[in-house]
Amino acid sequence: MALDLAEVTGAKQAEQIKKTQEKSPKIANGLDKDAFMKLFLEQLKNQDPTAPMETEKIITQTAQLTQVEMQEENKKAMKEMVDSMKVMQETNNEFKNFQATLKETMDKLGEGVDSSIEAAGQMAQSSAFQSVAMVGKIAETDVSGVNYTGEGKVHFSLFFDRPIDTSKGKAVVQIFDESKQLVRSISLDDKNGQGGYLDFAWDGLNDRGEQMDSGTYSVEAEYNLDPKTNHYLTTRVGRGEIQSVLFDKGKPLIRMGELILPLSAALEFYDKDKELVR
């Protein structure tokens, strides 16, 4: 079995005692608190009963011990306070950095919002100008007929690009059901010489005088037969000249005779000189 020479000679124990003494605070004559206390108690125990230690000396030594203990406590408290202040300082620095980053982010966000608002305003203004420029043009929309409730009359208007000339073929309004079957023809003889938007009313009867069911009916008209091409000019409900542009909560609406439709309902725009024929 190997022997620890340092343990046999007592060197290890001496080293441990030395380390303990180095850690303990010194009171007087190089003694630490524990050694001082031990020596003080030995003095009290071994003092001559006939000549006891003077009270002043006892008080002095006790005061030294108390003072050292207070110094230790104060030192410990000061260290804890310094550590706390360091933590607070680090926290304050981190908070300042967070505030700076947050401010930078908010500034960039504000710049982005301002740019978006400005761009939206420019787009809205451009859209408004473009919408107004459509006035006077012909629009083809996704509306192609009327809804009949099954009773009473239904009113509608048709746009005629040219004045109706009843001497050129047979001018007529035609109403079709959802199966594209012709149910009613209305003569335009009483509209001779008229053009633009003309108003009509359908009583819901077919050409045989029978009441039609409720539903959606498409409405078209043909007029002014061209003898050279043998084609009529045509028009329909949902087609016509844009008379004005309205705005409802910033959204453009187009007025076409009795119809007021959102701009998104328009499928095509073109000038008046383009006429539909068939």
From TrEMBL:
Name of the featured protein: Basal-body rod modification protein FlgD
Biological function: Required for flagellar hook formation. May act as a scaffolding protein.
Record key words, sorted: Bacterial flagellum biogenesis
Gene3D superfamilies documented for this protein: 2.60.40.4070
Superkingdom of origin: Bacteria
Family: Belongs to the FlgD family.
Gene source species: Helicobacter canis NCTC 12740
NCBIfam families listed in its UniProt record: PRK05842.1
GO biological process terms held by the UniProt record: bacterial-type flagellum organization
Lineage of source species: Bacteria, Pseudomonadati, Campylobacterota, Epsilonproteobacteria, Campylobacterales
Domain FlgD/Vpr Ig-like stretches: 166-224
